[in-house]
Predict the 3D structure of the following.
Amino acid sequence: MKIQSYKDIPGTFFDNDAARGVTGRVLIGAKDGAHRFCMRLFEINPGGHTPRHAHDWEHEIFVHEGRGAAFTDGRWVPIAQGDAVFIPPNEEHQFRNTSDEPLRIVCLIPAGAPEL
């Protein structure tokens, strides 16, 4: 069993044209012996965003803290703390922070997909 604060897990910071002001952390992944899923946490700074992309696997998002918007079906939909988001395979998506506070989202992906 692994029990660890996300704050104690080193993050990878992304700040470029594709992803602006985003820190990603692998909370539980292959290095922990997770054979079916990977759990990640992304912290998106105010004004920041993840890359707009699509991939062959589904994934699930839980908005842990903050407010923002999710890009889906060609439009932006507001998201806030407590929201759960399902992204089917091959659906173009992106997240952005629309507030003055950090947006923290927990993201689950299947094993074998790039963890970060």
